[in-house]
Amino acid sequence: MQIKGNTFIVTGGASGLGEATARELIRQGANVAIFDLNEEKAVSVVKILGPNAFTPGTVDVTSEEIVKSAIAATVARFGKLAGVVNCGGVATAAKTAKPGKSVGTMTLDMFDFTVRVNLIGTYNVSRQIASILVNQEPLNEDGVAS
Fold first, then answer.
1. Are 60 and 37 within 8 A, CB to CB?
2. At residue 27, what are phi and psi to the nearest 5 degrees?
3. Orientation angle between helical segments 16-27 and 39-49, nearest 10 degrees
4. Where is the secretion signal located (predicted)?
5. What is the pLDDT of residue 143?
């Protein structure tokens, strides 16, 4: 796939692996939309990356409507999409059980939050992007991103 000139969405793009991915895509000449829950950090990263970077604001990957709106803003800004790199996630770590204690163990709320962000959020973004990719005009004569 040709990176240069194509547009990618990077979830979790305001820090860690997502930020590194966004930086590399920009370095290779791509347009990048950063989807992140931390809008302040996303705006800061966009300022560093320059005019080929964009953030549609706070993006909660678990929200169908927020992701839909963020994708629409990205398409309005850059046009056709070439793909998504899902780096958005949380690292919730706790023991399932401790002998004689319940304090410090993984609660159901913690587990639910982790699954919603890491699994459901990734699927939510991927399915919405996939729907756009299969329905937009091909990016080149072979039907793939050039």
1. yes
2. -60, -35
3. 20
4. none
5. 52
Cα 23 to Cα 12: distance, rounded to the nearest angstrom: 12
* Extents of the domains making up the chain: 7-134
Distance of CA 93 to the CA centre of its chain: 22
Nearest to 74 by CA among 128, 119, 23, 3: 128
Pair 43, 55: CB distance under 8 Å = yes
Q: For the segment 18-56, what is each residue's pLDDT rounded down to a tens digit?
A: 999 999 999 999 999 999 999 999 999 999 999 999 999
The CATH fold of domain 7-134: Rossmann fold (3.40.50)
Q: Answer whether 125's CB lies under 8 Å from 67's CB.
A: yes
